[in-house]
Design brief:
The protein has 429 residues and is an alpha/beta fold. It has 13 helices and 14 strands. A 7-stranded mixed β-sheet has the order 6-7-5-8-9-11-10, sandwiched between helices. Strands 2-1-3-4 form a 4-stranded parallel β-sheet, with helices on both faces. Strands 12-14-13 form a 3-stranded antiparallel β-sheet. Keywords: Cytoplasm, GTP-binding, Magnesium, Metal-binding, Nucleotide-binding. InterPro entries: EFG_III/V, G_HFLX_dom, GTP-bd, GTP-bd_M, GTPase_HflX, GTPase_HflX_N, GTPase_HflX_N_sf, P-loop_NTPase.
Length: 429
């Protein structure tokens, strides 16, 4: 589709420090991203600017320096730790005579390598096509040519218009297929809601240790590695919580600073597991000196996907990499657990995590003693039994069922709306 230079694995990295806070990126994280993509870093070019240069993003002198390095080191690709405009990419490629990739393109490439399921591959392709469609605007010169040759001369579709149409058609086809997947996921969520099973979703910055923690808790074998975006496809497993009963734990894709909007949109179906969770376990790499900035980046993405109002339990992970840190639970002034310090790798503090999670979910529980007349006993007892909410039961001399129940407040509210009988009338004061 493009007359562009071939990509390769031998790369020159470019990282610019800006005085504008909104443009700031982290060099160590960038190098991890490049390593995760399987690229060989020949040299890192750094510099400082007040604002991006309109033509080359870097200044003209720095751009020429990069072009000279490409020739000297036989580099095959230049990777920027920043988002470039289509015009800046084109100008740099013309000057340096090799492929130029920005931060968004690098993340998309990693996602393409990591996608395992059919849904994951579709989501990555959708994000790539949306990103590519912006690169067609004021694109490479051959795209403006009209088709030539016998039978094709004269007014008609330019190559650019053809490419745009093909992209639109492919995006529509992927969206239709993803819509089917989303409906299947929605059916699963509805089934869990009908069974009154709470969902706990793991969220956090990429490489914070979510999958390792997930494997420890559920004894699953989800792929976990010390690299960025090891997990793309959501995985659900059942866990048993004392006093709460059955719950679903969901492992989801990691977030990153300045996560491309195309990715957020493409992974909407995946992130819905986070949007509809009862509580979020926000896993944080406590040993990372940038953990506060990473936490803030996750909060921004949670707000983007409308999941910022869901209750959160912070999990400070990797305490085995820290001195004088031991497993513990931190409580707020109301006595509610807010933070748990653990090591997923060493299995430290997992009992405390279960305790804190149980307390948080249990704090949303209600307990009632009910006296149910014979007319409603069969159905209601069956409902309470299936929800595993019965604590004690007996019958009085008039044949009423005396039953003690314990369940989530949200489940009780849903049950009240669903049942014909006025459940409040059966509560024994």
């Amino acid at each position: 589709m493009f007359d562009r230079y071939e990509s390769g694995e031998q790369a020159i990295l470019v990282h610019i420090n800006f005085t504008q806070e909104g443009e700031w990126e982290d060099l160590a994280e960038f190098e991890m991203l490049v390593s995760s993509a399987g690229v060989n870093n020949l040299q890192t070019v750094t510099g400082s600017r007040q604002a991006p240069h309109a033509k080359y993003y870097v200044g003209e002198g720095k751009a020429q320096e990069i072009a000279d390095l490409v020739q000297l080191l036989d580099a095959e690709i230049i990777i920027f730790n920043h988002s470039l405009s289509p015009a800046q990419e084109r100008n740099l490629e013309q000057l340096c005579k090799c492929r130029v990739l920005d931060r968004t393109g690098l993340i998309l490439d990693i996602f393409a390598q990591r996608a395992r399921t059919h849904e994951g591959k579709l989501q990555v392709e959708l994000a790539q096509l949306r990103h590519l469609s912006t690169r067609l605007i004021r694109g490479w010169t051959h795209l403006e040519r009209q088709k030539g040759g016998i039978g094709l001369r004269g007014p008609g579709e330019t190559q650019l218009e053809t490419d745009r149409r093909l992209l639109r058609d492919r995006i529509k086809a992927i969206l239709r297929r993803l819509e089917k997947v989303a409906k299947q996921r929605e059916q699963g969520r509805r089934a869990r809601k009908r069974a009154e099973i709470p969902t706990v979703s793991l969220v956090g910055y990429t490489n914070a240790g979510k999958s390792t923690l997930f494997n420890r808790i559920t004894e699953a074998s989800v792929y976990a590695a010390d690299q960025l975006f090891a997990t793309l496809d959501p995985t659900l497993r059942k866990i048993e919580l004392e006093d709460v009963g059955l719950a679903i734990l969901a492992d989801t894709v990691g977030f990153i600073r300045h996560l491309p909007h195309d990715l957020v949109a493409a992974f909407k179906a995946t992130l819905q597991e986070t949007q509809e969770a009862d509580i979020l376990l926000h896993v944080i790499d406590a040993s990372d000196e940038r953990f506060r900035e990473n936490t803030q980046a996750v909060d921004i993405v949670l707000e983007e996907i409308d999941a910022h109002e869901i209750p959160v339990l912070l999990v400070m992970n990797k305490i085995d990499n820290m001195e004088q840190q031991s497993p513990r639970i931190e409580y707020n002034e109301e006595g509610i657990p807010t933070t748990v310090w653990v090591s997923a790798m060493e299995g430290l503090g997992l009992d405390l995590l279960f305790q804190a999670l149980t307390e948080r979910l249990a704090s949303q529980m209600v307990e009632y003693s009910l006296s149910i007349p014979p007319l409603y006993q069969g159905r209601l007892r069956s409902v309470f039994f299936n929800m595993k909410s019965i604590r004690q039961e007996a019958y009085d001399s008039e044949g009423n069922l005396l039953i003690d129940i314990r369940m989530q407040q949200a489940d009780w509210a849903r049950l009240q709306k669903r049942e014909e009988a006025q459940l409040d009338d059966f509560i024994v004061s």
